[in-house]
Design brief:
123 residues, mainly alpha, Arc Repressor Mutant, subunit A, globular
């Protein structure tokens, strides 16, 4: 059996990070996931849309109909949840070599540094 690419809670966290960066519809989210994590991870509607639905039910993202599609964006609660889990996002970025966080702040850089120093054994 192939190990799961995302650990518990990481896919929803990545989805929030993506729509916090810029609003997008479901297939755009899937395309970004494939671009960022492929070929090691190939998103499917059966994993991405349930994550979107759960995030929307929790009030962390919101969808707005537009031209026959639903465009998702992070809510204030989603932004707060993302900030509260910055260490988990930094650990994911470190593990996968992918950058997801907003580039207009030093917080993601500091979180990745902190994740690296916590995971690096002392010699």
């Amino acid at each position: 059996m192939t190990p799961r690419f995302f650990r518990h809670g990481e896919l929803p966290l990545v989805v929030i990070a993506l729509v916090a960066e810029r609003p997008m519809h479901g297939y755009e989210i899937m395309g970004e996931l494939a671009r960022l994590f492929g070929p090691r991870y190939q998103p499917s509607p059966g994993s991405v849309y349930p994550a979107i639905d759960a995030l929307e039910a929790e009030g962390l993202i919101e969808g707005e109909p537009s031209d026959g599609k639903t465009i998702y964006r992070a809510t204030r609660s989603g932004d707060e949840a993302l900030a509260a889990r910055s260490h988990a996002l930094a650990a994911l970025e470190l593990r996968t070599g992918t950058r997801l966080a907003r580039r207009d702040s030093l917080d993601p850089v500091l979180a990745r540094f902190s994740a690296r120093t916590v995971s690096t054994p002392v010699r």
